[in-house]
Structure formats: C-alpha cells, structure tokens
Design brief:
Layout lengths: L7 H14 L6 H7 L3 H6 L9 H22 L5 H11 L2 H11 L9 H5 L6 H19 L1 H11 L1 H4 L2 H7 L2 H12 L5 E8 L6 E8 L2 E8 L2 H16 L5
Antiparallel strand pairs: 1-2, 2-3
Helix pairs in contact: 2-8, 4-5, 4-8, 4-9, 6-8, 8-9, 12-13
Length: 242
C-alpha cells in the first residue's frame, strides 16, 4: 500500500484537510491514496503506491447515492425527472471543483512534475476527481451514514438552492398529480385573455380546480401562460413564497 512522502509539511497539510472536512481519518492511508494522482505514481515507480482513480470511480457512485437520498427526503413531492435534473446540476465538475478549492484539496495532492508545471493543482477536472476520491476515502473509513452527513454539510449551499427548484420543477405535471390525488380531479386551464399583434400576442390563462378558479397566469404562448398559472396555483396550495 501507499508509502508516499511523510514529512511535517505533508502531515500538516493532511491535518488541515481533515479540519476542513470536519473529519479525522482512522486510516490516514485511505486519504493519502485519494490524493495521489496517476502522474505521481508514474514518475515514482519505486514507491509502489496506488493512484486515486479507483477511488474516483467509487466516490462518484457514493456521491450519487448520498445526494439522491438527501434530495428525496428534502423534496418528497418531486418527480424522478425533476430530482435527476437537480442532482445533475449539483453533482458536476464545476461544483465539485469549487468544493475542492474551499477544502484546499489542491494543496494536498501528490502530482508528477509535468502535471505540477502545467498547473494541475488548479484544474477543474483534476480537483473534481480528487474530491470524489476523498469522498470515497471517507466512505471506506466510516461508512455511508457518516459520509452522507459530511456531504450534507459540505453541499448544503447547493442542496438548499431554491433557484434549482424553480429552474427544474415541473409545476404543471406536479399540480395535476397533486390535484388528482387530493381532489380526484385534474386542473382545468382556460384562456381568458389574448392581446397584442399576431406576432407578439400575450395570453391570459386561469386554472380551476374542482370548479374553483385558483390562479391566473400570462405568457407569450398558451403553454407559457398555463405554466405560470400552474406555478402560482402550486405555490398557493403549498403556501410557498417567491
């Protein structure tokens, strides 16, 4: 197993990373492996150490499961399609690289000389992969529950980003499912207004549930107006605020 360089500077760097993660490893070798890039292994064959690529693979899967679990519990009324889109928006290279920078993972990486010279410590792809590897190391050291707890804290800003809710949530489909379940009837959309020239019309739509007008919306197309009305109706029925 890994016998990477151990000196005071290196130990301090790893201790700093543990502090940033709010987690102390029982087996620090797992963290060492997570921070070892292939370029370093290739340039130091005499060390007989392992790179972090297998950990990247595992970490990607662990991230997916943890974030899926957190999203399902946070958004119990979201469809599979909406949850998938939000998860993809959270678990991507840019987000993971940003988190890696906040944790200062780049400072702890073992890189080959060529990768070092080319600015490997600041590359989004390399940092995102290293973040995944570190998550895998935590999972191997402490299990799923602890890893999910750490991720919930690390990714809280993204998990609680309401703009993702608005961007990906399908209000019209969700309103229909909600109404059929609660009122045994689908919402009814009715065009109540149409104004402007043919090339730039604005439509007004009302949505009724169980015969009662709930909300109205407007848009440059009937579809857009219905979406707006559905969104307002959903928010009213669920006491949501803009």
């Amino acid at each position: 197993m890994a016998k990477s360089p151990t000196n005071k500077k290196r130990r301090d760097a790893l201790t700093g990373l543990e502090k940033n993660l709010s987690y102390n490893f029982r087996n620090i070798t797992l963290l060492e492996t997570a921070l070892t890039h292939r370029s370093y292994v290739n340039e130091n064959p005499q060390l007989a150490i392992t790179d972090n690529e297998r950990y990247e693979f595992l970490g990607d899967a662990v991230l997916g499961v943890c974030i899926s679990d957190l999203l399902i519990k946070k958004h119990s009324d979201f469809s599979e399609g909406t949850l998938s889109k939000i998860r993809a928006a959270i678990v991507n290279e840019n987000t993971l690289a940003e988190l890696a920078r906040k944790l200062e993972i780049g400072n702890c990486l073992l890189l080959g000389k060529g990768e070092e010279i080319s600015g490997g410590r600041s590359k989004d792809s390399l940092l995102a992969n290293a973040f995944e590897a570190v998550i895998a190391a935590i999972y191997l050291d402490a299990g799923f529950t602890k890893t999910k707890s750490i991720l919930k804290k690390l990714m809280g800003l993204f998990l609680n980003d309401d703009s993702l809710h608005s961007q990906y949530f399908d209000y019209k489909t969700s309103l229909q499912e909600f109404c059929q379940k609660k009122y045994k009837a689908a919402p009814v959309y009715k065009i109540v207004d149409s104004c402007g020239p043919d090339h730039a019309k604005t439509f007004g739509v009302e949505v009724s549930i169980a015969g009662k007008v709930i909300q109205a919306g407007s848009g440059k197309s009937k579809k857009e107006a219905e979406k707006q009305a559905a969104k307002k109706a959903w928010q009213e029925l669920h006491n949501e605020k803009e």
